[in-house]
Amino acid sequence: MYHVYICMCKMIRREDNTKGSSLSGLNTLQNKSFCSIGQMHEVYGNYSYYIRRLSGEHMIIERFITMYMKHKTSQYLTFENSSDIDAPEAPSESIHLYVHIPFCEQLCPYCSFHRFVYDEDAAREYFHALKKELVMYHDLGFRFSGVYIGGGTPTIHMEELIKVINLIQQLFSPDEISIETNPDRLDKDTLVRLAENGVGRVSVGIQSFNDDILASIGRYEKYGSGDLLQERLLNAKGYVNTLNTDMIYNFPTQTPFMMESDLEILKQIRPDQITFYPLMISDATRSRMEHLMGKVSYSKEQLFYKMIVEHLQGFYEPSSAWCFSRKDSPMIDEYIVTGNEYVGVGSGAFGLVNGAIYANTFSLKQYIGRIDQGMLPLSARKIFSKKEMVRYAFLMDLFGLSLDIKAFRQRFGSSLTSLLAMECLFFALAGGIRFNAGRIDLTLRGQYYWVIMMREFFIGVDNFRDLSREAAGIQL
After folding, report:
1. Measuring CA to CA, which residue among 346, 382, 321, 326 is closest to residue 147?
2. Cβ(203)–Cβ(180) below 8 Å
3. pLDDT for position 2
4. Residue 333 has what pLDDT?
5. Residue 332 has what pLDDT?
6. Looking at the chain, which residues constitute the CATH 1.10.10.920 domain(s)?
């Protein structure tokens, strides 16, 4: 963040040369040590004008955040690859669980998740191995309070899926289970069956109600028109505690009119939750998307995000920087598992335990083979340094809109302003955070900054996933 900050200072100086003003004081900030929030506020008052002015005129902040996160993510996601990685030690408290089901009837061109075209025999073999892996984590002493089942299409084989859910209930008795599905599986029988087996939240991928966009990304043929999607969503309400609708914005051909139309439709349907993801595509997926829809650009992204926030205000409350809820709903999804740590089971699943990210093998053959040998299918690990873990926690905590300063200090043994002085100063100057009675809260502007950072972080994860799939001989 320091390098980004210095570059911004140079740009500010060039901007102000026409006025003959001197900004040499900004350079002294690189040596500034903050002992308290008050000292940070003093610096913030002296220099916020310059950065806030540049933000409005040239979107320099957004571009620098993108560059910074792209650079840092490439550093952080440098994994140790090995078939001999020790199993993580179970934490003393309950954490979360992500379960990956990597099968789809057809593969969407924009999707960078780990998935295969559905084959029933392969799926049955996979589910059998998945249940063995769950038992392994139980035997290691892990306890899970929240579960997210993603994919792929988890509901693609309901008989096997229900067996997995029942085993999870038997082994771990989680407080909440959330699952994702596709629009063609929003029928009453499926939803009732999920609810009867303990699923409280169902997340359905809609992406858009616009027929042209749906056709471009291959979902019109698979799931029908925008009108049919509306009908299915309306008919699905009331069967589970929380019905979440996943949407994507910033498609190359998307216009503000299309965005507004999607928002108005959602306000009429009123699902319990709406998650608006910015278009996030890996380097390998980018060329395919650009062939279908044109060049991917971020020039309209902030406008779309502003439209989302303004249109949903009064109908929904933000649960995170990109999720909006009508009521208190479990906030776990295929990108974020609420809580500091989680285990990932299934081929290509990620987990974060004891300060290290773990990844399972992406090869179905290797995954099943290692499970049959009684070994966890771990294939890659990244052990975070304390500084990296602090930054990760800062990113994820504020993605949830607010950070408890005292709890952060207790977790890491030092004050937030001593651990991340430059980061706090940068986002305070940029108008992205505010200090409020022992907490740091995101401002509306800060919510978009965090969308940018999460977008770049998960594009980095997608790039690692693509490299791992390629190494496993899987066609991208």
Report:
1. 346
2. yes
3. 46
4. 54
5. 56
6. 34-75+390-457
Q: How many CB atoms lie within 10 A of CB 451?
A: 23
Strand-strand pairing, 342-345 and 95-101? parallel
Q: CA-to-CA distance for 204 and 20, rounded, in angstroms?
A: 56
Residues of the chain with pLDDT > 70, as a percent, come to 85
How does residue 24 score in pLDDT terms, banded at 50, 70 and 90? very low
Backbone angles phi, psi at 35, to 5 degrees: -90, -20
Match domain 34-75+390-457 to its CATH number in 1.10.10.920, 1.10.287.470, 1.10.290.10, 3.30.559.10: 1.10.10.920
406-416 mean pLDDT: 93
Evaluate if residue 78 carries a pLDDT over 60.
yes
**Would you state the pLDDT for residue 463?**
87
Amino acid at 315: F
| Portion of the chain with pLDDT greater than 90, in percent | 69
Quick one: 95-325 is in which CATH superfamily? Aldolase class I (3.20.20.70)
Q: How far apart are CA 383 and CA 344, in angstroms?
A: 16
Max Cα–Cα distance, the chain, nearest Å: 74
User: Is the Cβ–Cβ distance between 190 and 161 less than 8 Å?
Assistant: no
For the chain, the average pLDDT equals: 86
Q: What is the DSSP string of 387-449?
A: HHHHHHHHHHHHHTTEEEHHHHHHHHSS-HHHHSHHHHHHHHHTT-EEEETTEEEE-HHHHHH
Cβ contacts of 295 within 8 Å, gap of 6 or more: 252
